Amino acid sequence: MESVLRTELEQLYRKHRQSLFSVALTVTGCSSMAEDAVQEAFARLFQKAEPPEGSLASYVFAAVRNAAIDCRRRQQHQRSITESIFASGGSDLHLSDISTTANQNDETESLKSAIDQLDELSRQIVVMKIFSELTFEEIAGVLELPSATAATRYRRAIMKLEEELRRSS
Amino acid sequence: MSELELRIRALSLRTPDHSLDDRILAALRQSDVTQSTELSTVEKAITPDNVGVSPALNTNRRGTVVTSGWIVASVSMLIGTVVGNSLPSISSLQAQRDASMNADKMARIVGYGRRESANGSAEPRLSETGDSTVTGNVRVGSGPGPSQIVESIWISPTAAAVAWEQQTGQIFNVVNHVSERRFDMCRECHRVGG
What we know:
The complex is a heterodimer. By secondary structure, chain A is an all-alpha fold.
């Protein structure tokens, strides 16, 4: 593998490690399997001699997702487990952003729960769009969908989340 | 970006275990180290297990190679046989050479015989070489004096008899010729023991 590609992969992993792990987690539903999937995907990527033609981020996310699907196929019996993609115990907001009221904490937990209840594809789109700031073109490349379809799925997911929050409040 | 999207972004995704970071970064370093030896490793690792070839397929491939080798060997032998048969045999070549060169060789022997006779020997006598099949040169003359080197040749019995009669001026008698010491000369000339 070329040193340039190796460096880019390392930087990409450090930047998107949480999103990559979350995408894998949405597929496997199990954190240990998700970790295995991420590791397996990078192990495959390290064997590549040539960089991909398109976006490297899209390429890596697709590799992780495919590895997660493989892991899920191998261990179908663990499919019933569904872990949240969010860290427990609040958020990493800055002090100025942190709401100290119980009401706001409830809203945050409701939002987490609503995202966790989205379908698998929508969760992946939300993670890649909001947390990793991928373009719809890149997301479409990961999911092997038309970019318009990816954008539509994202908007529907956001609308669904808004409805859930309104209902819960 | 809408307010909801900002709120979602403010959430914290789960962080993978630190061991994942260690494993991935270690694999990254390992790929860096193995890059230099990748070529030799690939060369050594061409086995059915590594290249994904099933044992059955590998056996078939080996069998194909063996079969191909036998086919090549058989065809080579066949071509060799055909070419060998098309060439004239050694004995026929020898006979042709004898027929064309007999006269010249007889004259040479006669010449040498006369020189030997001049040294006092009644009959020319070729020395023993110990091996009737030797095709090299043989010494002429067994005495202490200087010997002459005569080319070892093969001539037919008839031609040898004529040459002997010309040398000695006598009539060639097969019984006397073979039973006497001249037998040595016959053996040298005929290279077949007389």
